[in-house]
Amino acid sequence: MNNLNVVRVARAAFSKRETGIIVAFLALCLVFALIAPGFANLTNLLNIGRQVAILGILACGLGTVMISGNIDLSIGAIYGLTSVLVAMMLSAGLDTGFAILLGLLVGMAAGALNGFFVVKTGVNSFIATFGMSYILRGIALIITSGYPITLALKGVTNETHPVFHFIGQGYFLGLPMQFIFLLIVVLITYFILHRTILGTHIFAIGGSERAAYVSGVKVGRVRMFTFIFSGVLASLSGILSLSFIGSVIPTAGTGMEFDVFAAVIIGGTSMSGGIGSVVGMMVGVLIFGVIRNGLVLLGVTAFWQTLIIGIITIGAVVYDSMVQRSRARMGG
Questions:
Q1: Least C-beta-crowded within 10 Å: which of 118, 148, 170, 230?
Q2: Does 264 have pLDDT greater than 70?
Q3: CB atoms within 10 A of CB 58
Q4: 3 state DSSP class of 176
Q5: What is the CATH number of domain 19-321?
Q6: Do 175 and 49 touch, CB atoms closer than 8 A?
Q7: If we measure between CA atoms, which residue out of 75, 27, 26 comes closest to residue 54?
């Protein structure tokens, strides 16, 4: 009887979409631990945690949107504009808490606009968020005249703004604060997606919008939430990045949405919606971070890193497409 239970548990585990991703991640870590000097060092592992924190926070937002069957290409622009605006507010002498709050409201407003165009006007989310990214990027360039902002040169230092510097550069219980924020966001996202009715509705809409609507799901409201959630997390990422780096350029975050998209896809979130998990997203982010870190330790140039990440992303997309076709045939 015990043996039968073990077999059932094993089958259930290996039938989960995330299992293969986790196995691939562990295998990748083992390979780099054997061939990359210093990879398994505790300091390096903490560095990986910090390096993937921003990507992971963004992935929680984009992954939620994708599970609902949409896409958000404006997260990089929201990230950049928020960084610029918070830097300008702090430079102007505004209170740290007030500046952070206004920064988060920028993401909320941008997300709400994305949701409005998709839900109320019926514009495809790819087009709506792609256009929004250009609008936000244009605003950042206009208000800065294209010049970077360095906080230290504006009198914003660790001495004058200790709280702001702590959230991006500090440590709590030996862990980088950026990683602490990632853990908090992951827990919140996990609770929303996997423990609430709202999460059930997000998956339902991604699986079949018509079926969800017939079942009484408020499709518009749910979709609006996913875009606002993504926008707020993009703003949070921009604030944490500004705190850590201490400066920002108007084009900050350009192309970042593609890194996040790659990590989410690698993590098993379906491009067609309805399939995905927070665990898968985070494993995808970790795979992304481990590959970049391991290749750097091996002395591989950034050009080859980009090529390798692209190949892996295409492989994940092809795999997802094959799975979808297989399920469609079985359903038919």
A1: 148
A2: yes
A3: 31
A4: strand
A5: 1.10.3470
A6: yes
A7: 75
